[in-house]
Amino acid sequence: NRADVARATFYAHYTDKQALLASIATDLTDDMTARFGPLAPMSSTTRGEVALEMFRHADANRDIYRVLLGGAGDPPILQAYVDALAKAAEAIFAARAKNLKVKPRLPVEFLARIWVGQHVALLSWWLLGDLPYTAEQVALMRTKYHVNGAEWAHGAAPGQWVFDASLYGPDAEVPVS
After folding, report:
1. Based on the number of CB atoms within 10 Å of its own CB, is 56 exposed (0-12), middle (13-18) or buried (19 or more)?
2. For residue 40, which of 100, 91, 101, 114 has the smallest C-alpha distance?
3. Which of 46, 118, 156, 173 is disulfide-compatible with 160, CB 3.0–4.6 A?
4. Which of 123, 27, 26, 19 is nearest to 70 (CA)?
């Protein structure tokens, strides 16, 4: 009613509210991936262009993201959004590794899910918490964390944290294809 759309017009385009939300989430994802795809750097220099563009996109579409992230949408719709972002990130990460002639130490699909999981968690924290940070500030914090790591972010000196792989046992090594 508030949108001044007749019920018959709505149902001519969508079977129900969830179909409308799925369409909006797909459009949102397509728009965002079209915007950040060309920005994905293929060098060893990480400047954070993709993260910055993703947060700017969220800021420009704040109301839609709040619906998507806040539970008013359907969990499968949010999962489809996450899956689409992970697929795009995986392609970028694989292309970057190939371009740099390096072999990732962990599976690329794992790296993509970590990256996307962090992004979605930060979007939720930022947009649903209505925090005072700008898109640029959140993207900068995320990029600094991504590049410098948890040890740096927590204030520890480089090498202060020590990893003991013996805890995981001899069969825990992850094969990387």
Report:
1. middle
2. 91
3. 156
4. 123
pLDDT tens-digit readout, 149-169: 999 999 999 889 988 888 888
Residue 73's pLDDT is what? 55
At residue 44, the pLDDT reads: 58
Read off the tokens for 89. Answer: 């990130």
Residue indicated by tokens 């204030």 = 155
* Residues 160, 166, 169, 172, CA torsion sign: positive
- Looking at residue 170, what DSSP letter applies? T
Amino acid at 25: A
Q: How far apart are the first and last CA of the chain?
A: 53
